[in-house]
């Protein structure tokens, strides 16, 4: 056996996600990425809305009826939450870009505020409309 093969066997393993205890900042980081992906996919609703307008009144009325169904309203609720969550997460990252909020307490507070404000904004918007 060569020295290289022997040295790779004795190396310590890198820490894995199973070792770390998830923090709110870690979770909000993953959720920020997922909401960005959801928003990217959710833009297809705008495309279908524009297409239904272009294809005439009958198609638009069908599209409108589909959009008013209960299931689609639930999807729009979560899509709206994803929008607000991604927006407040972006503001959190902007604060970090300014060089502020790097203490552990500040990171946890900003992460919690992202979650709280996104839910409050979504609920407020759905009550207003």
Topology:
Layout: H1 3-9, H2 24-42, H3 44-54, H4 57-67, H5 70-97, H6 104-128
Written account of the structure:
It is a single chain. With 129 residues, the protein is an all-alpha fold. The protein has a single domain (22-128), classed as Fumarate reductase/succinate dehydrogenase, transmembrane subunit (3 helical TM bundles of succinate and fumarate reductases), CATH 1.20.1300.10. It is 78% helix and 0% strand. Helix 3 packs antiparallel against helix 4 (57-67) and helix 5 packs antiparallel against helix 6 (104-128). The longest helix has 28 residues, at 70-97. The radius of gyration is 22 Å and the shape is elongated. The N and C termini lie far apart (72 Å). The model has no long low-confidence stretch (mean pLDDT 90).
Provide a brief overview of the structure:
The protein has 129 residues and is mostly helical. The protein contains six helices and no strands.
Q: What is the CATH H-level superfamily?
A: Fumarate reductase/succinate dehydrogenase, transmembrane subunit
CATH class division:
Mainly Alpha
Number of distinct beta strands: 0
Number of domains: 1
Please compute the radius of gyration using only Cα atoms: 22 Å
Largest sheet report? none
**End-to-end span in angstroms?**
72 Å
Report strand %: under 5%
Q: Extract low-pLDDT stretches.
A: none
List keywords for this structure.
129 residues; mainly alpha; elongated; 6 helices
């Amino acid at each position: 056996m060569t020295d290289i093969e022997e040295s790779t066997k004795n190396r310590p393993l890198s820490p894995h996600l199973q070792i770390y205890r998830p923090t709110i900042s870690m979770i909000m980081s993953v959720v920020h990425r997922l909401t960005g992906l959801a928003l990217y996919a959710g833009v297809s609703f705008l495309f279908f809305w524009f297409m239904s307008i272009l294809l005439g009144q009958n198609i638009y009325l069908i599209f409108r009826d589909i959009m008013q169904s209960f299931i689609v309203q639930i999807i729009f609720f979560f899509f709206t939450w994803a929008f607000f969550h991604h927006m407040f997460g972006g503001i959190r990252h902007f604060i970090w870009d300014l060089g502020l909020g790097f203490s552990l307490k500040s990171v946890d507070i900003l992460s919690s505020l992202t979650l709280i404000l996104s839910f409050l904004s979504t609920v407020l918007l759905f009550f207003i409309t």
